[in-house]
Amino acid sequence: MCPPRLADRRDDLVQAAMMRLMELQRREPDRERWTPAYLYRVAYTALVDEIRSVERRKEVGLEVVESLPEQPVAMGNPEQSANASQIARAVRDCLSKLVEDRRLAVTLYLQGHTVPEAAELLGWDGKRTENLVYRGLGALRLCLSSKGFEP
User: Fold this and answer.
1) pTM above 0.85, yes or no
2) How far is CA 12 from CA 1, 2, 19, 116, 121, in A?
3) Is the pLDDT assigned to residue 29 strictly greater than 80?
């Protein structure tokens, strides 16, 4: 019942369902058998939880991001749209000037990940990631200030 877009997570989904069953077994040790309907329900809820998690994180592949147009599309005021486009271009330019580790950490942070989440995604120590994020944000602010963009 796993949709094709989550095919790469099938093993993780099976493991999540098994963990739920093991937790139930721990809570109710005298329970001997699970009905097929119950097993289906556990698998279904594990799948729904994973779909919600993916939607909440709004995961987008790097190839998709790189193929997007340079200019952001904004509705309404053309002046605001032009300003947003200039800011986006300046941010991209300043990010490209950062050292790779800082760029990765800051990019994840700007996408809405917390420092601990970014550390986990990058496989780095939390303190190192925190340092890279805050130093990278400082360098980003300086670069944007030099281009005339102030908060």
Assistant:
1) no
2) 14, 11, 10, 21, 16
3) no
